[in-house]
């Protein structure tokens, strides 16, 4: 059972999470300095390895059991405001595709040796249209957070949260506007590829959403409840669970980062266990990462979601820990240091 039944309790549980292990980081750094390579010659991979060591509380971190959890949800705003280039039924059709193994994320997950779990949340009951009032009641939002919380499997040593939800770049842009300020134009983008009039409808939807949900601007969890969707709340719940259990997380693109941003704004330090896997081609993603002081591992022009960018970055983190944990020291190899 998840240890919270209200948004306030969720916040408290997250705020009580322990930090990373300084002793393990120091040990990892000392080990790293003895490995058969010029000092810090692996650049960001060395930083990643030491960061992984701190969260896994060992100088020899692993990526043996990575998990990718995809959460799916539908949004009232999608049909009410025609904010996507695709119809809402694609959400459920793609869930079937994930289950059959036919989506991009299935192939990437297999290629990096990650377990993939799929969590469809109430697809036949879209959230309420956030331009008319809150997208979710507190009960609905908490229930989605709990689904994310419970989705993180025991033994996972690296976690990725992915999403599927037609219209969710509009929800993510609305959350970003509420959390970071500025105007909706700063945060709205093309998503699946809307045209100019689609872009305008997205901006207008975000404007209306903020106007009817004034609490969203002053309280991050209210922003999630009023403007988010079930899959976005579930991603936030899973990233919070990973924080509490000291499991390192790789963030995916625009929507995943918006879910994470809610946690960062609710509790300082809530994203200490997170790396940005990639910078999405969705224009505002770069800005969101800058605001969160996250430096993406990859920039591949991807704008898919499903956890796909983060899944590709699993191989980068795995390469980092493979060197940290598998390399010989100068002494062991008889190399002059
Ligand atoms: C076939 C298909 C597969 C997808 N996989 C992820 N998304 C991505 O597109 C959606 C967000 O874009 P928007 O806000 O424009 O609807 C999300 O479902 C996201 O995961 C997909 C979208 C489609 C059409
Ligand atoms: O950045 C993403 O993850 C993204 C961008 C566009 C559409 N779906 C997802």
TrEMBL record:
EC number in record: 2.4.2.21
Pathway where it operates: Nucleoside biosynthesis; alpha-ribazole biosynthesis; alpha-ribazole from 5,6-dimethylbenzimidazole: step 1/2
Keywords, ordered alphabetically: Cobalamin biosynthesis, Glycosyltransferase, Transferase
Tagged with keyword S-adenosyl-L-methionine: no
GO molecular function: nicotinate-nucleotide-dimethylbenzimidazole phosphoribosyltransferase activity
Domain of life, source organism: Bacteria
Gene Ontology annotations of biological process type: cobalamin biosynthetic process
SUPFAM superfamilies: Nicotinate mononucleotide:5,6-dimethylbenzimidazole phosphoribosyltransferase (CobT)
Residues of the active site: 306
Alphabetized InterPro entries for the sequence: Nict_dMeBzImd_PRibTrfase, Nict_dMeBzImd_PRibTrfase_bact, Nict_dMeBzImd_PRibTrfase_N, Nict_dMeBzImd_PRibTrfase_sf
Xref: Gene3D superfamilies: 1.10.1610.10, 3.40.50.10210
Pfam families, sorted: DBI_PRT
Family, similarity comment: Belongs to the CobT family.
Function (record text): Catalyzes the synthesis of alpha-ribazole-5'-phosphate from nicotinate mononucleotide (NAMN) and 5,6-dimethylbenzimidazole (DMB).
HAMAP family referenced in this protein's UniProt entry, alphabetically: CobT
Name of the protein in its database record: Nicotinate-nucleotide--dimethylbenzimidazole phosphoribosyltransferase
Organism expressing this protein natively: Rubellimicrobium rubrum
Name of encoding gene: cobT
